[in-house]
Design brief:
This protein is mainly β and about 160 residues long. The protein is built from three helices and nine strands. The protein has one domain: Beta Barrel (Hypothetical Protein Pfu-838710-001).
């Protein structure tokens, strides 16, 4: 079983853009947003993936990811995913031996920027980059699957 251990933070400024080594446009939607498991469709460039994630416990959850045909993903986003879907730019930021993924959201979520780091274990230590603010790991309001459903997000 694949496990994802991830810590998530609000971003306080755009200094991450100066540190980023790459950026990718992402469109994603959710076929299922249940607490016990989500099913996500994501398009990055000309590649598409279907991801199934289990219930989050602390900072850890099961994750299974599969490449799917781009045309299938486009159809799923149009017909199976509640609208609006998420549009964001992901910036890849290396910082002190770790890779941070900084998501700059667009559309209805414009103004929200989140930084994530995936870890080999929950107690793994790491340095925080200067653009990182409040830790929102485990706060379900900041799960991507919930972002388009709630109105009380504070940026």
């Amino acid at each position: 079983m694949a496990k994802e251990i991830e810590h998530k933070y609000l971003v306080t400024d755009d200094s991450y853009k100066l540190l980023a080594t790459e950026a990718h446009a992402i469109v994603q939607g959710y076929i299922s947003r249940e607490v016990n498991g989500t099913v996500r469709v994501r398009i990055v460039g000309d590649k598409a993936r279907l991801t199934i994630k289990g219930r989050t416990v602390g900072d850890t959850r099961s994750e299974f990811e599969y490449e799917i045909p781009l045309a299938d993903a486009e159809e799923m986003l149009r017909t199976l995913c509640p609208q609006p879907v998420i549009s964001k730019t992901r910036h890849i930021v290396p910082y002190e031996g770790h890779t941070w993924e900084v998501d700059e959201f667009h559309g209805d979520l414009e103004g929200l920027t989140l930084a994530e780091i995936e870890l080999p274990e929950s107690i793994h230590s790491y340095a925080l980059p200067p653009f990182v603010g409040r830790n929102v790991t485990g706060d379900p309001r900041y799960y991507n699957s919930a972002l388009t459903q709630i109105a009380d997000i504070r940026y």
